[in-house]
Amino acid sequence: MPIAPTVTLGDLVTEDSRRSRVLERFGLDYCCNGADTLADATAAAGLDLDVVAAALDLPAAAPAAEHGPTSNADLAHDIVDTHHAYMWEEMPRLAALVEKVYRVHGERHPELARVHDAFVEAVTALEPHMTAEERSVFPTIAKLEKGHPATLSASLPESIDRLVAEHQVVGDLFHEIRSLTGGYTWPADGCNSYKMMLEGLQQMELDLHEHIHKENNILFPQALRLVQA
């Protein structure tokens, strides 16, 4: 079926995760701005709606991996096991690499000072953010799903609002890093560590997009519906 211009970016990816790479290619933010309609997003980006819609109209048969977790608790576990685990392991390694490249190449590439600071800001925000999700928010969502007392949900909407706002902050920081590095382009005078840093930053941003999409556009709305019920 043709892609409707009124469908949201988040719903497009929720229906078929393969569309995330299409939206990435066009520079459309389906995670933090997943509530934007395709028509609004393409207009804001100065893109041709018909061209983007055609690219998103993928073959009907989705891969087997498309069938993901069916419950909120399972989805939360998937986020922790897949995305949080990656972040906890990768953040220290990449932080050391960003520091090294800034120290060695910063004089010739002054933009690395801001790349370094923006990455430190992102990590500083992500560490308590993921800890709060793992220790408080995700367990509360799982308990509500099992029918535990509704009093557990009293502070959940406020917590979710805070987490969504923090997603936006981190998303903006990585958008800035991408711009500063020319879309993670390896400079002619860059060493292998420089290349590894850029590849690591790009992979982390892509993973964050999937990570935030699962929370902002799937898990958190489902959790808020539990609270309302």
Write up what this structure looks like.
The protein is mainly alpha-helical and about 230 residues long. It has 2 domains: about 10-65, no CATH class; about 70-229, no CATH class. Helices cover about 70% and strands about 0% of the residues. It has 8 helices and no strands. Helix 5 packs antiparallel against helix 8 (about 190-229). About 30% of the residues are buried.
Overall domain count: 2
Q: Find the structural class using helix and strand composition.
A: mainly alpha
Shape, please? globular
Helical content (DSSP H or I, runs of 4+): over 70%
Number of strands: 0
Number of helices: 8
Largest sheet: none
Explain briefly what this protein structure is.
This protein is mostly helical and 229 residues long. The protein has helices at residues 9-15, 19-26, 38-45, 49-56, 72-105, 111-145, 156-180, 192-228.
Notable characteristics:
229 residues; mainly alpha; 2 domains; 0% strand
